[in-house]
Every structure is written in structure tokens, then in C-alpha cells.
Amino acid sequence: MRGGDAGKPHVLVVGGAGYIGSHMVKRLRQAGYAPVVLDNLSQGRRAAVGDAPLIVGELGDDSVLNVIFQAWPIAAVMHFASFIQVGESVARPAAYYYNNVNNTLALLQAMVRHQVPRFIFSSTAAIFGDPDYLPIDERHPKAPLNPYGRSKWMVEQMLGDFDVAYGLRSCCLRYFNAAGADPEGELGECHEPETHLIPVVLQAAAGRRRSVTVFGRDYATPDGTCIRDYIHVSDLCDAHLLALESLLDGGASSRFNLGNGVGYSINEVIEAARRVTGVPIMVIDGPRRPGDPARLVADPALAHETLGWTPRFSDINAMIGHAWAWERRTG
Ligand SMILES: NC(=O)c1ccc[n+]([C@@H]2O[C@H](COP(=O)([O-])OP(=O)(O)OC[C@H]3O[C@@H](n4cnc5c(N)ncnc54)[C@H](O)[C@@H]3O)[C@@H](O)[C@H]2O)c1
Ligand SMILES: O=c1ccn([C@@H]2O[C@H](COP(=O)(O)OP(=O)(O)O[C@H]3O[C@H](CO)[C@@H](O)[C@H](O)[C@H]3O)[C@@H](O)[C@H]2O)c(=O)[nH]1
């Protein structure tokens, strides 16, 4: 254990060098926890974890997990590591099931072996598929349209079984579309290749790509483009902290939908980016991307009522503004 972290609860952040995980590492430190990061750096960046201990290794590697759980008194695990692209998961399902399900199973088994009883899981709106009704609450039927969503729903189901059999309590946080960047400008989104709408639009604004392609204009939405509920990465971190406190206080397993409850179409996001950046952004029309539902909008009431979670950066202009500041710093 690092001397300076003695007495602070240790939290293993798997995937902590990635986009959302790195923001969480910073927030845990600020909140008085001692984060320990496991990441294979396939997407993550060493610089993004600051001075937290970083173990560069595979999530599914028992020998690495044994060393970590023996070296630090881990009170809880936050699991951000997975493959994350909806479209790619349709083309490469085996890779998605292997990394997102098999490797997560290895992590859960190691937690049982080492008697680490608390787990916070990065789940997704993609478990719901094409919604039967909006906004989507926690009870909405689960009918994922793509292997990515199916892999996350499989893990959620495994977690129910692990609670019953082994007493491993978990909180599944189903993010809608994560967006924005650290308001202090130290961290942001850095995927390679970048596929998420807002950073792609901002790369076009910055001149790092010529244009942004809109994947389908024939959806059953008012302007024909897909609607998503964008949620600021800092607000996701707040929800994780509240979920962690609940589990540390002895709370039961739970699952929450995390969004603002407001949907924006692709057109609206591009218009907002033009306003925020003051730059013209060239748009090209393309075909639909496989596996995309037309609309995903969260009902976040349960997280408000149970965890006391209230998003602080719900304005789409703030999300794009923070992401734009990061793009200009690093692009
Ligand atoms: N970004 C979103 O909009 C969004 C929405 C819903 C859910 N999620 C979920 O949130 C989590 C984090 O997403 P993100 O956008 O920060 O992704 P990311 O790719 O930026 O971060 C994932 C991190 O996990 C690491 N990783 C992947 N496989 C690994 C393995 N086998 N062993 C060790 N490390 C591994 C990567 O190097 C990366 O640093 C993911 O589980 C994702 O499915 C993201
Ligand atoms: O260059 C682009 C990129 C995206 N889109 C569209 O924009 C919308 C949002 O796409 P994207 O930013 O890739 O996010 P999603 O596919 O909605 O998936 C994100 O949000 C999900 C939850 O809703 C998470 O589970 C996933 O991990 C995360 O990648 C979709 O309709 C895309 O087809 C475009 O039209 N052009």
C-alpha cells in the first residue's frame, strides 16, 4: 500500500485510464478515496491516471488480479473496461463477448476468491434496444439490438446470480450517452479511432477531419436523425460516488438509468456545436449504422430518489463547451 493512502478506502478502477474511468480516478482522489487502476492501455492513456498506481495488464488475467487483490485492501471495484462501439460489435461479436463477458467473469471470480464484496458496473442504455415507451425507466424490457448491448445485459444478469450465491453486491449504472470533459480541462475523451458523435463533430470543427457523416436521416423522429440523451461525464462520476457510498453503507444491489431525461437529435447536436464553436461544420449524409435504435431517452427518477443524484451539467451547450475546450487543448 502507498504510505500516503493509508486509511483511505481503496477502490480498484478497471479501465481507469480511459475516458470515463480517468475522470472517476480524479474524482475518487478528490473525495478522499485511494484509487488503484488496472488498464491494458488499449484505449487508455497513462497520463490520464495522474499519480494513482497504474497496473498495466489484462482484466481477465488471474495472475494480475491475484497480485492486485493481495497488494491492496480493495473495498470495491468500479469496472469501466470493455469494448464500447455499437457498430463494431455487430461486425466483431466474438471480440465483444470475450472482452465484455468472459473477462468480466474472470474479474468477478477473482473478487469472490479474494472476498471483495462490492462492484459498480458500467452498463448502458443499449441493453433496452428499440424502446417500447419513453422515457426509459429501469423496468423497461431488455431487448438489446446489438452484441455490445447483449454483452452488458449478460453481465447484469450474472451480477444478480453472484449476489444470491456469493453475496457480491453490485450497482449497475446504465449510462445513456456520455459526453463532455473535465470542467477543469485536465481530462477528456481520446478514443482511437474516435467514433462518438460529439467528439467527431468537434474534430470537424477543429479541422482535424473534413466533415461529419450523419448515419441515416430516415428514422421515425421529427428531423429523421437519431435521438440520444447526452449525460456529462462529471455527472456520471457523481452517480458512481453515490453508488459507492451506498454499497459501503451496506446498501443492497441496485441498478439505475443515468441520463438527463432530454433527447437531442444528431441535427440538434451539430447545430449546438456550430453555436458553441462559432465554426461552420461540414455535414455529409450516410447510410444507417447497423444496430442503432432511433431514440434513447432516460427516466432518471430512480437515481434522483434513491441515490440523491442530480446532474449538474445538463445543458448540452455546457457539455459541448467542455469537450470543445479539451479538443482545442489536445487536438
Ligand atoms: N462512452 C459512452 O457513451 C458510454 C455509454 C454507456 C456505457 N459506457 C461504458 O462505460 C465504460 C467506459 O467507457 P469509455 O467511453 O470510458 O471507454 P474507453 O474505451 O475510453 O475506456 C475503457 C478503458 O478500458 C481499457 N480496457 C479495455 N479492455 C481492457 C482489458 N481487457 N483489460 C484491461 N483494460 C481494458 C481501455 O484501455 C480503456 O482505457 C465502458 O464499459 C462502456 O461500455 C460508455
Ligand atoms: O460520426 C458519427 C457518429 C455517430 N453518429 C450517430 O450519432 C448517434 C450517437 O452515436 P455515438 O456517439 O456513437 O453513441 P451511441 O452509438 O449511441 O453509443 C454510445 O452510447 C451508448 C448508450 O446509449 C453506449 O452504450 C455506447 O458505449 C456509446 O458508444 C448515433 O445515432 C450514431 O449513428 C453519426 O451520425 N455520425
Structure description:
- By secondary structure, the chain is an alpha/beta fold.
- Helix content is 39%, strand content 17%.
- It has 2 domains: 8-179 and 232-258, NAD(P)-binding Rossmann-like Domain (Rossmann fold); 197-228 and 261-330, UDP-galactose 4-epimerase, domain 1 (Alpha-Beta Complex).
- It contains 10 helices and 13 strands.
- Helix 1 (19-30) crosses helix 7 (233-248), helix 6 (197-205) runs parallel beside helix 8 and helix 8 packs across helix 10.
- 48% of the residues are buried.
- The structure holds nicotinamide-adenine-dinucleotide and uridine-5'-diphosphate-glucose.
- Residues 84-86, 124-126, 176-177, 195-197, 200, 212-215, 226, 228, 266, 289, 292, 296 line the site of uridine-5'-diphosphate-glucose.
- Its cofactor is NAD(+).
User: In this structure, how is the largest beta sheet organized?
Assistant: 7 strands, parallel
Mean pLDDT: 96
Task: Give the number of domains.
Answer: 2
Please list the strands of the largest sheet in the order they lie side by side.
Answer: 3-2-1-4-5-6-11
Question: How large a portion of the residues is in β-strands, by DSSP E?
Answer: 15-25%
* Fraction in helix: 25-40%
Low-confidence stretches: none
Task: Provide the CATH superfamily of the largest domain.
Answer: NAD(P)-binding Rossmann-like Domain
Radius of gyration, in Å, reads: 19 Å
What CATH architecture of the largest domain do you see? Answer: 3-Layer(aba) Sandwich
Terminal CA distance reads: 37 Å
Structural class computed from helices and strand pairing = alpha/beta
CATH class of the largest domain: Alpha Beta
Which kinds of small molecule does this entry bind, naming each only once? nicotinamide-adenine-dinucleotide, uridine-5'-diphosphate-glucose
The CATH topology of the largest domain comes to Rossmann fold
Q: What's the assembly state of these chains?
A: single chain
Helical segment tally?
10
Q: What is the β-strand count?
A: 13
Family: Belongs to the NAD(P)-dependent epimerase/dehydratase family.
Organism: Duganella lactea
Pathway: Carbohydrate metabolism; galactose metabolism
Pfam families: Epimerase
